[in-house]
Design brief:
Blueprint: H1 3-23, H2 28-52, E1 53-54, E2 57-58, H3 62-75, H4 80-97
Helix pairs in contact: 3-4
């Protein structure tokens, strides 16, 4: 990454922060529905990237099976510890078999 890119990104972050400070609460009611959904969307995007991306390639391996099992467990309203344990066991089982 070049120094120019770092300065441009830093300036953009500063301008975004400055806009939020100057706007105050004027946009709070308009953006409230979006801001409640944003953390879940960002977390989902991180999970997808960590599951199927390896540098610049698409990887389909045991991690994807673990995430699929976790999704099913969440849909069936399993406790968080059970979701994690099932995903871990599914991933380990697929890796053991392959």
């Amino acid at each position: 990454m070049s120094w120019a890119a770092i300065f441009i990104l830093s300036g953009g972050c500063y301008l975004a922060k400055l806009t939020g400070v100057m706007a105050g609460d004027r946009f709070a009611t308009v953006l409230a529905p979006v801001t409640t959904l944003l953390p879940a969307a960002l977390f989902s995007a991180i999970v997808v990237l960590m599951t199927v991306a390896d540098d610049s390639t698409l990887v389909i391996d045991a991690r994807l099976a673990g995430v699929a099992v976790a999704i099913v467990a969440v849909i069936r309203r399993a406790p968080f510890a059970v979701v994690v344990a099932l995903a871990m066991l599914a991933t380990a089982g697929i890796r053991l078999l392959s």
